[in-house]
Amino acid sequence: MIFQKLGELLAVFGPLSFLTVGGGQSIVSDIHRQSVAVHAWMDDGEFLDLFALSRITPGPGSLLVTLVGWHVAGFTGALLASAAIFLPCSVLVYGLARLWARFQHTPWIRAIEAGLVPVAAGMILAASATLLRAAEGGPWAWSVAAASTLALMFTRINAFLVLGLGGGVFWLALG
Amino acid sequence: MNNDNETSPRPVPSLAAIFTAFSKIGLTSFGGGLSGWMMREFVLRRAWITEEEFLSGLALAQSFPGVNVVNLAIWIGFRLRGGPGAAMGALGIVVPPMFVAIGLAALFSQLKESHTLHVVLAGVAAAAVGLSLQTGIRAARRAARQIVPLLVMTLTFIALFLLKLPLLWVVAAMAPLSIGIAWLRLRKAGASA
After folding, report:
1. B38 CA to chain A: closest CA distance, Å?
2. Does A110 sit within 8 Å of B100, measured CB to CB?
3. Alpha carbons B123 and A137: distance in angstroms, whole number
């Protein structure tokens, strides 16, 4: 029984490892479908709890997979599901990085690196704007975000302190 | 290795230092925007890699399959210390937060009822936007030095944020365009030099 569940975890998350393109949000809907409808590991409410938890946990958002594994098959499930989602794509990217290093000083690689900078800039700005749009607290969220941006750009303030201050402001204002 | 022609020698951190640095990023980054944390830590504070390397690595990490931040950790780790560096980067960013996630899941039934906790976390998330925005503004200043990269950046932003097009399509359209233009510019610069 436990081996069957572990096998299911591998079969679900191994292939998803290659589909996590663009922010990880793309696979959340499929994790939901597989966990609730296909394998009946949990119901909708349990899935949403795990999702919320994965958002407030430090580290990669993809740790949702770890939590699903933990829910399905305990600690072994958590480790196995994590390995299944992180390992296959990591090996692929490692291969790419090796290839990159070999051709590092060729004109094409330099063109690719220079050409990707403005694309990355647009992506980061869009991600920031999306986070702001989704943030709870309205004007409070925008003010805290603006203040933390300025503090990080113009001072050498510890970033962790900035987050603590953000939490503190919300606690005093809205708690 | 063909790195002999690198002009400025860069610090080469130990494997333990790489693991510790990525663990720190993994454990202290809440509310998304891990790439902002990485940029602050590895480009600005430690100067392990250049801003240009970081940004091109970021765009690549996001457009290739796989968990983006893990891709980026592998990328940076590999550039610092080859294969073992890549492994330390990936393990550092995944494993310690994984144990925290499991621990929090075990405590979750008590945590989820608290209104105060929810409000504080929303504040932390708002402040975390600053990290992402700081990285974006720095990258934008680099891109805005010439008109074409500025246009590419603006179009990418509009496509993603306003039109909400899938990232994969946007990168698949903008990256080849931008790389082609950079190629022409580099060739022209090479010819006139």
Report:
1. 11
2. no
3. 8
Q: Residue A24: left if φ>0, alpha if ψ -120 to 50, beta else—which one?
A: left
How far A109 CA lies from chain B's nearest CA (Å)?
A: 9
Interface touch A118/B120, C-beta < 8 Å:
no
Q: How do residues A79-94 score in pLDDT, each as one tens digit?
A: 999 999 999 889 988 9
Distance CA B10, CA B67 (A): 28
Q: Count of A–B CB contacts within 8 Å? A: 367
Range of the domain at A71: 2-105
* Dist. CA B104–CA B113, nearest whole Å: 14
The total of structural domains in chain A comes to 1
* pTM listed for this prediction: 0.74
Kindly list the residues from chain B whose CB atom is less than 8 angstroms away from the CB atom of residue A61: 32
A116·B175 Cβ contact <8 A = yes
- Classify residue A175: in a domain, yes or no: no
Contact (CB<8Å) B78/A145: no
Domain ranges for chain B, please list them: 1-143, 146-193
Nearest Cα to B22, choosing from B80, B70, B86, B93?
B93
Q: Angle, to 10 degrees, between the axis of helix B115-143 and the axis of helix A159-174?
A: 130
**pLDDT classification of B176: cutoffs 50, 70, 90:** very high
CB contact under 8 A, A128 and B33: yes
> What is the full DSSP assignment across A80-140?
HHHHHHHHHHHHHHHHHHHHHHHTTTSHHHHHHHHHHHHHHHHHHHHHHHHHHHH-TTTHH
CA distance A108 to A31: 38
| B163: chain A residues, CB-CB within 8 Å | none
